[in-house]
Amino acid sequence: MNAVKHIAHGLPPIGDEASQVLILGSFPSVLSRANSFYYGNPRNRFWDVLSSFFNEKTPKINDEKEKFCLLHHIALYDVIEECDIYGSKDSSIKNAIPSNLSVLFSKASIQTILLNGRKAEELFEKFGMHSHFPRADVVSVPSTSPANAQFSLSELEMAWHEALRQAFLPR
Fold first, then answer.
1. What is the DSSP code string of 100-114?
2. How many C-beta atoms lie closer than 10 Å to residue 41's C-beta?
3. What's the pTM value of the predicted model, to 2 decimals?
């Protein structure tokens, strides 16, 4: 039986000095933690959406996913470092402790932050995280989670592709 548990993030940040776009979710799902990588639920549309933007094959294994992100100057992490949560439900999150993004990405050249879903947006604002990257544009995009059934894959692609196009415009 699932119960509310206090859980630490457990996944390392993805990114390097060349990272320009930071994509933040709320907190890793049960399947992401079990698979030891971001957006590890096979029904999550994150990797399909990103790979369609870059017109590439969807990466399947963790090494491919990490290389994909680094090749395209994308960093990944989450707004929450630890919290009380029931399963993977964002709506159950309580006692959230924010991630220290400025330490994690201090060497990166983050120009745009994409917030994957409403909970990530809500907590990013609540925790005042924009202060870590005062010159970065912050854009909220619809969640790629399978729980976000109101958006079809094509609708997600449209929203995300527009945000990614803006993020990768020369500055």
1. -HHHHTTTS---EEE
2. 19
3. 0.95
- The pLDDT score that the predictor gives to residue 3 is 83
Sign of torsion, CA 23 28 33 34?
negative
**Distance in angstroms (rounded) separating the CA atoms of residues 109 and 102:** 11
> Which residues are CB-neighbours of 123 under 8 A, at least 6 positions away?
26, 79, 80, 96, 98
- Are 108 and 19 in contact by the 8 Å Cβ rule? The answer is yes
Q: Tokens 């094959």 map to which residue?
A: 57
CB-CB neighbours of 116 under 10 Å: 27
User: What does the pLDDT look like over 17-37, one tens digit per residue?
Assistant: 999 999 999 999 999 999 999
Ordered alpha helix ranges (H), the chain: 30-35, 46-53, 62-71, 101-104, 118-126, 153-167
Tell me which residue of 55, 90, 69 sits closest to 16, measured CA to CA: 69
Say which residue the tokens 């945000």 belong to.
Answer: 163
Cα–chain-centroid distance for residue 112?
12
CB-side neighbour CA atoms (13 Å) of 26: 26
